[in-house]
């Protein structure tokens, strides 16, 4: 027998009290769920911001390193060609 049927056959009984508790609990669960979702969204945003800052740093670091390495190669090639001839 379903809980609603039991509450209908025995008003004021345990089944009816349980239904009242379940109905009042739905609001609390929805509020807690909403707060949980907002917390996750803010944490994911913070995590993404940290990842993006690290990516920007890494890209700028690698680009600068590649430029310096290319300039060193050009200088080495220029000095090597001058010393040969």
The helix tally amounts to 2
State the helicity in percent bands: over 70%
Q: Any idea how many domains?
A: 1
Structural class: mainly alpha
Q: What amount of the residues lies in strands? A: under 5%
Helix and strand string, N-terminal first?
HH
Low-pLDDT segments, ≥5 res? none
Rg over CA atoms: 34 Å
N-C termini distance:
102 Å
Give the rounded overall mean pLDDT: 82
Indicate the overall shape. Answer: rod-shaped
What distinguishing features does this structure have?
mainly alpha; rod-shaped; 85 residues; 92% helix; 0% strand
Summarize the structure.
By secondary structure, this protein is mostly helical. Helices cover 92% and strands 0% of the residues.
Kindly describe this structure.
With 85 residues, this protein is mainly α. It has one domain. Helices cover 92% and strands 0% of the residues. It is rod-shaped and about 105 Å long.
Task: Indicate the topology.
Blueprint: H1 3-9, H2 14-84
């Amino acid at each position: 027998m379903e809980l609603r049927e039991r509450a209908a056959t025995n008003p004021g009984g345990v089944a009816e009290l349980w239904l009242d508790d379940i109905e009042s609990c739905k609001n609390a669960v929805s509020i807690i769920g909403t707060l949980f979702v907002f917390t996750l969204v803010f944490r994911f945003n913070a995590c993404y911001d940290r990842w993006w800052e690290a990516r920007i740093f890494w890209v700028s670091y690698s680009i600068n390193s590649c430029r310096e390495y290319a300039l060193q190669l050009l200088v080495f090639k220029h000095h090597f060609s001058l010393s040969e001839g």
